[in-house]
Amino acid sequence: MSYKVTEEGDISIVHLDGEIDMDVTEKAKEIIMPLIEAKKEVHLNLKEVQYMDSSGISVLIESHQKANEMGKKVILKDISKSVLKVIMMAKLEQILNLG
Amino acid sequence: MVALRQISEQRDFAVSSASLKDVRSFSREVFEKVNIDQDLKDELVLAIAEAAQNIVKHAYQGEDTEDKMEIKISLNNGELEIGFFDKGRPVDKENVRHRKIDDVKPGGLGTFFIQQIMDAVVFKEGEKPWINHLILTKKINY
After folding, report:
1. A79-92: per-residue pLDDT in tens?
2. Which of A2, B30, B32, B101 has its Cβ near the most Cβ atoms within 10 Å?
3. Residue B2 included in any domain
4. What count of other Cβ atoms lies within 10 Å of the Cβ of residue B64?
């Protein structure tokens, strides 16, 4: 997994790239959580994520819940077909913010 | 390439989260030889990777080990069987369950995905030298 973070005002945009599995979840959290804790709105661009497993979904849930606690939002953007399928399999399309 | 109707392939993997990408590569290589649609291939790869992840997470509880786990993919007359063999802690079959899906929290989804994708999930005691033997099956139309 690789990533790039850009800033647009109060919004941090995290572009994730590659496959997100148990082996990279800690890294993903290290990227995303400090942005949420800094009270940024976080957009996760998932266009280039070709694979996500249950560990990756857990990162999305944890990020979503942490942002809610902080009164902020994590919005999932440009979700790839394969990631959307896993989100729907987990029945989270109504829970997570899909932008 | 001629699509195969019978397959039996197995491979050993280090019991480590770093091996999961190799598990996926192996699974993709095997399913490339079968004439099934890409969505189903992707689902099967996910189910296999989730089961391998469960071995790393639960049978070994994330501990470093020299042990290997073995994955065997067999297809015969439309019956797909995927076997997982490991030497970790014995699986308590009564405790293998996914969390309630409407109880939204991180974790507990891997087993749910496996059950969604596969027709049957059976835990057996492994024959020596194995401790656990998980069998996932699915009828494949091709």
Report:
1. 999 999 999 999 99
2. B30
3. no
4. 9
- In tens, the pLDDT along B70-115 reads 999 999 999 999 999 999 999 887 776 776 767 777 778 999 999 9
Q: Is B25 within the bounds of a domain?
A: yes
Contact B109 A51 (CB under 8 A): no
Q: Would the CB atoms of A51 and B113 count as touching at under 8 Å? A: no
* CB pair distance less than 8 Å for A54 and B50: yes
Q: Say whether residue A58 is in contact with chain B using an 8 A CB cutoff.
A: yes
Closest residue to A53, CB basis, from B18, B50, B101: B50
Cβ B17–A22 below 8 Å, yes or no?
yes
**Tokens coding B76:** 């015969």
Token pair listed for A75: 């919005």
The CATH number of the domain holding residue B82 is 3.30.565.10
Q: Is B47 inside any structural domain? A: yes
Structure letter (DSSP) for residue B57: I
Quote ipTM for the complex: 0.94
Task: Measure A37 CA to nearest chain B CA, in Å.
Answer: 18
Distance CA B113, CA B38 (A): 17
Q: Which CATH superfamily is domain A2-98 in?
A: STAS domain (3.30.750.24)
Q: Does B38 touch chain A (CB under 8 A)?
A: no
Give per-residue pLDDT as tens, A34-57.
999 999 999 999 999 999 999 999
Which residues are registered as beta bridge partners of A6? A13
